């Protein structure tokens, strides 16, 4: 059932941070592994219903909390350097593969997790059987002025842990119950992210247009057209420039940021399962 996990653990991340990991298992032998990479401010526990749908389809699902998020240690919503996220993900992947050495692995990243998953895939494509990106934060929104970006970079150099920007919780979903649960969740970071994290993400976003032509792994990109937190322009950039011969890009008209938590979530999750089924 959603939210009920089959196991949890902590592994040592970069710099000694303790990363909380959990997994959900199918009833029979798993067909493949799906590793979930969550978004900014949230945590892996919000993906229980996603895991339930995937385990019903025969997949074992793993997820972890980023440093500074959920049950993992670290300064909240902060990273010293962007590559710490990628190194943490590699350590988690190795932990997962040690449990399932003969299974293909699909990486599923949402929002900031989509940003991290894409960057990881570009560096470590041979480790992945597939890449699924949900509302990926891979392009700087047009609403963010260039002057603010410049100021943020200055602040990040002199005061990297200064708090600069908070997410608008009302934008996560069109479902008021989802928004209310998000706002009441004590494991969600409801404050501002640090300048260090903000600039790390902006820097990664600026690199993607010149890098994604090298993407070879089968990739599914999914984005709600009314996403107010991660600009849909990022997915359109991937549609135009990603080099994978197996690239599927789907836009969900009128859906908000968390397409797995919208009223149409069953349709979205069915599409994820069907796409993975066809590749593993």
Supply the key terms:
alpha/beta; Rossmann fold; 8-stranded mixed beta sheet; 18% strand; two-stranded antiparallel sheet; 280 residues; 10 strands
Structure description:
There is one protein chain. With 280 residues, the protein is α/β, with parallel strands linked by helices. It has a single domain (7-277), classed as Rossmann fold. 36% of the residues lie in helices and 18% in strands. It is built from 8 helices and 10 strands. It has helices at residues 48-56, 82-99, 112-123, 146-158, 176-184, 195-211, 233-241, 265-277, and strands at 7-12, 18-24, 33-37, 60-64, 105-110, 130-134, 163-165, 193-194, 219-224, 247-252. The protein has an 8-stranded mixed β-sheet with strand order 1-2-4-3-5-6-9-10, sandwiched between helices. A two-stranded antiparallel ribbon has the order 7-8. The longest helix has 18 residues, at 82-99. The chain is globular. It starts with 6 loop residues before the first strand and ends with a helix.
SSE layout and pairing:
Elements: E1 7-12, E2 18-24, E3 33-37, H1 48-56, E4 60-64, H2 82-99, E5 105-110, H3 112-123, E6 130-134, H4 146-158, E7 163-165, H5 176-184, E8 193-194, H6 195-211, E9 219-224, H7 233-241, E10 247-252, H8 265-277
Parallel strand pairs: 3-4, 3-5, 5-6, 6-9, 9-10
Antiparallel strand pairs: 1-2, 2-4, 7-8
Helix pairs in contact: 2-3, 3-6, 4-6
């Amino acid at each position: 059932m959603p939210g009920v996990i089959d196991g949890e653990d902590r592994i040592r991340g970069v710099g000694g941070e303790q990363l909380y990991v959990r997994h959900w298992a199918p009833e029979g032998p798993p067909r493949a592994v799906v590793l979930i990479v969550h978004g900014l401010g949230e945590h892996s526990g919000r993906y229980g219903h996603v895991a339930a749908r995937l385990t019903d389809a025969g997949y074992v699902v793993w997820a972890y909390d980023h440093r500074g998020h959920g049950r993992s240690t670290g300064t909240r919503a902060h990273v010293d350097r962007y590559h710490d996220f990628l190194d943490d993900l590699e350590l988690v992947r190795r932990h997962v593969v040690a449990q399932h050495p003969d299974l293909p692995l699909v990486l599923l990243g949402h929002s900031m997790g989509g940003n991290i998953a894409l960057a990881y895939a570009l560096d470590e494509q041979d480790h992945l059987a597939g890449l699924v990106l949900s509302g990926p934060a891979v392009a700087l929104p047009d609403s963010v002025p260039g002057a603010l970006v410049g100021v943020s970079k200055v602040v990040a150099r002199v005061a990297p842990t200064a708090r600069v920007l908070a997410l608008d919780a009302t934008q996560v979903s069109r479902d008021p119950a989802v928004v209310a649960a998000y706002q009441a969740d004590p494991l969600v970071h409801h404050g501002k992210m640090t300048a260090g994290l903000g600039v790390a993400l902006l820097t990664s976003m600026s690199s993607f247009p010149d890098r994604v032509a090298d993407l070879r792994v089968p990739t599914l990109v999914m984005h709600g057209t009314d996403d107010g937190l991660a600009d849909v322009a990022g997915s359109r950039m991937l549609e135009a420039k990603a080099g994978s011969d197996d690239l599927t890009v789907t836009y969900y008209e009128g859906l908000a940021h968390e397409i797995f938590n919208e009223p149409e979530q069953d349709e979205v999750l069915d599409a994820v399962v069907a796409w993975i089924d066809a590749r593993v």
